[in-house]
Amino acid sequence: MLASGRNVNILVMDTEVYSNTGGQASKATPRAAVAKFAAGGKPSPKKDLGLMAMTYGNVYVASVAMGAKNEHSVKAFLEAEAYQGVSLIIAYSHCIAHGINMTTAMSYQKDIVDSGRWLLYRYHPDLVGEGKNPLQLDNRRPKLPVEQTMYQENRFKMLARSKPDAAKKLLKEAQADVNTRWQMYQYLAARQLEISNGNGHSKADAEVVTSVK
């Protein structure tokens, strides 16, 4: 569907597990989380669906968390609806499988974003035609350690109780995942686009060649 080019709007409610079949681990499950089929804590990082979708170049992509920044979510939905092509919105969705206080789950989403475990961004292909970077990173640099949010969730605390050494190792790797992903998105959002003349060379390259002649 992402490659179809059709005017289709897709919403992914990302609970980070297979919620409707019992809470099994999936590719969307973050590192160190305990879930069915990952009793020892998931050893690998979460799949970055948004980044994969951006590689098509003509898909509108947004990552939102309404509890963290509702105005950003509304803006993303409006842009996705207006975009003439495939749009994909990935929304952080708390789940009972996380083992959190569901009565405060919406406000807890802000902590998830502040720790860098979830990013807020919009990738708008139409901006390329205006000579602008299509990726807009909409949250600030992470200010909370992942440990502060992870250990508010039973899916992470369970491992710390049963296998503290493994939990410590995976926690360190999970923090590295967050740091690396933030740095990568920050780099992608900061880069300037070069205007190509259609032969693989930028406008600046063409000017250099002309001056040499």
UniProtKB/TrEMBL annotation:
Keywords: 4Fe-4S, Iron, Iron-sulfur, Metal-binding, Pyruvate. GO terms for molecular function: 4 iron, 4 sulfur cluster binding. InterPro entries: Pyruvate:ferred/Flavod_OxRd, THDP-binding. One of its GO terms (biological process) is response to oxidative stress. It comes from the Bacteria. SUPFAM superfamilies: Thiamin diphosphate-binding fold (THDP-binding). This is Pyruvate-flavodoxin oxidoreductase. It comes from Crocosphaera watsonii WH 0402.
